[in-house]
Amino acid sequence: MTIEALILDVDGTLADTEEAHRQAFNQAFERLYLGWHWTPQAYRRLLATTGGKERIAAWIDELDPPPAQRKALMARVPEIHAEKTAVYTAIARDGGIPLRPGVERLLDEARAAGLRLAIASTTTAANVDALLQAAWGARGLSLFDVIACGDQVRAKKPAPDIYQLALDTLGVAPERAIAVEDSPNGLKSAVAAGLWTLVTPTFWTEGSDFGAAGLVLPHLGDPDEPVPGEPGGVLQGAAWLGIEELLQCAAPRRRPDAIQALYH
Questions:
Q1: Does domain 5-16+98-257 sit in CATH 3.40.50.1000?
Q2: At what angle do helices 67-75 and 77-93 cross, to 10 degrees?
Q3: Catalytic status, residue 151
Q4: Distance in angstroms (rounded) separating the CA atoms of residues 162 and 120
Q5: Which residue out of 9, 161, 182, 222 is catalytically annotated?
Q6: In this structure, what are the phi and psi dihedrals at residue 253, rounded to the nearest 5 degrees?
Q7: Nearest CA to 194 among 163, 169, 216, 158?
Q8: Is beta strand 116-120 parallel, antiparallel or unpaired with respect to 146-148?
Q9: Full DSSP string of the chain
Q10: Where in the chain is the domain with CATH 3.40.50.1000?
Q11: Closest listed residue to residue 141, CA positions, set 152, 151, 130
Q12: Contact, 42 vs 58, CB < 8 A?
């Protein structure tokens, strides 16, 4: 069956944004005199909760304040998140978040092959816009046929809602699309929507269970930044994942094998 679309997550997939998000949260906490600070280890743990506002709420639950204080803090979650978003978008627009290896190349190859591109992200539209414009300039938004963001669905990842929204808007059946993710929640979301999924973990998600993925690579690779151990490990054509090989990996005859390459 012909693949028609590539649907990509944003945070961690297009770019390793999580450190910028962590810094933005901490700056927001400081500006709002909350006295909170998320270390890399704490933030990695909090990433198990999908969505920025939900992550703040999870942190408040961890702090376990008295009932009245908890209610007051929960009421401030939208304010805290809005401040964090303002900081993050400034970081992104200043070019502080480079794309991961191979992302720009693979998307250009996908476009040239006639595939449609979509985003399925639980982050806000403002965060997506800032990253796309910083990475691709004026063509950033027009590069994607559909941009589905977290606030457009009732349930965030690992629920399949965001991928179902992207598929419905594209008008493409799940067996005719490939998802690209970096996290276990993202993988669960894509698989629940019926998508064959490529996973490229980061520091924030490596070591997670990606057993349901069709293919796992440390990154997509480029001629000047090859994938370790390739070709010959999982990739056969080159030391980077090209669109032709990705389409071959996602072909129905190979789906049951759930071919993976786990890198540490």
A1: yes
A2: 40
A3: no
A4: 6
A5: 9
A6: -65, -15
A7: 163
A8: parallel
A9: ----EEEE--BTTTB--HHHHHHHHHHHHHHTT------HHHHHHHTTS-SHHHHHHHHHHHH---HHHHHHHHHTHHHHHHHHHHHHHHHHHTT-SPBPTTHHHHHHHHHHTT-EEEEE-SS-HHHHHHHHHHHHGGGTTTT-SEEE-GGGSSS-TTSSHHHHHHHHHHT--GGGEEEEESSHHHHHHHHHTT-EEEE---TTTTTS--TT-SEE-S---BTTBPPTT-SSSS-SS-SS--HHHHHHHTSGGGGGG-------
A10: 5-16+98-257
A11: 130
A12: no
Instruction: Output the pTM of the full model.
Output: 0.85
Q: Report how far residue 44's alpha carbon sits from residue 59's, in angstroms, rounded to the nearest whole number.
A: 12
Name the class of domain 18-93.
mainly alpha
- CA–CA separation, 75 and 70 (whole Å): 9
pLDDT along the chain (264 residues), means of 10: 94 92 97 97 92 95 97 98 94 89 97 97 89 88 92 92 98 97 96 98 93 96 95 93 96 47 34
pLDDT of residue 1: 67
Distance between terminal CA atoms of the chain?
Answer: 33
Candidates 264, 240, 260; CA nearest to 109 is 240
Q: Under a CB-based contact definition with an 8 Å cutoff, are residues 176 and 1 in contact? A: yes
Which residues of the chain does CATH 1.10.150.240 include?
18-93
Q: Which residue has the tokens 């690209």?
A: 180
If we measure between CA atoms, which residue out of 110, 119, 108, 143 comes closest to residue 244? 110
Annotated catalytic residue 145 = no
Which residue in the list 11, 161, 182, 222 is annotated as catalytic? 11
- Cα torsion for 243, 233, 14, 160, to the nearest 10°? 90
